[in-house]
């Protein structure tokens, strides 16, 4: 098997952007369909706003989780015998 070359920062950013757009679009559609099935009159724009907020909170939570994991790893490595 051939080794894959590492992604450039631009490729990573582009992949993240498309991932966020896909999650946002999917959540918007799910929210809208759920409202439609329950006979509520929420607009697609309102559902898209709610989905954007949920995706943003998820990304912030993931960033905090990764930061905490890195910080914990540094602290463990700094301890003698750890």
General description of the model:
The protein has 82 residues and is mainly alpha-helical. The protein has one domain. Helices cover 78% and strands 0% of the residues. The protein is built from 2 helices and no strands. Helix 1 (9-37) crosses helix 2 (44-78). The model has no long low-confidence stretch (mean pLDDT 86).
Summarize the structure.
The chain is an all-alpha fold and 82 residues long.
What is the subunit organization of this protein?
A: single chain
When the domains are counted, the total is 1
How far from one another are the termini? 36 Å
Proportion of helical residues: over 70%
Mean pLDDT: 86
Mind describing the biggest β-sheet?
A: none
Report the portion of residues in β strands. Answer: under 5%
Task: Please give a handful of descriptors for the protein shown.
82 residues; mainly alpha
Topology:
Blueprint: H1 9-37, H2 44-78
């Amino acid at each position: 098997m051939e080794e894959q070359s590492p992604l450039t920062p631009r490729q990573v950013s582009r992949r993240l952007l498309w991932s966020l757009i896909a999650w946002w679009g999917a959540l918007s559609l799910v929210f809208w369909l759920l409202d439609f099935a329950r006979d509520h009159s929420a607009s697609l724009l309102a559902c898209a706003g709610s989905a954007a907020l949920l995706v943003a909170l998820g990304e912030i939570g993931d960033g905090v989780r990764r930061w905490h994991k890195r910080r914990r790893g540094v602290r463990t490595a700094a301890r003698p015998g750890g």
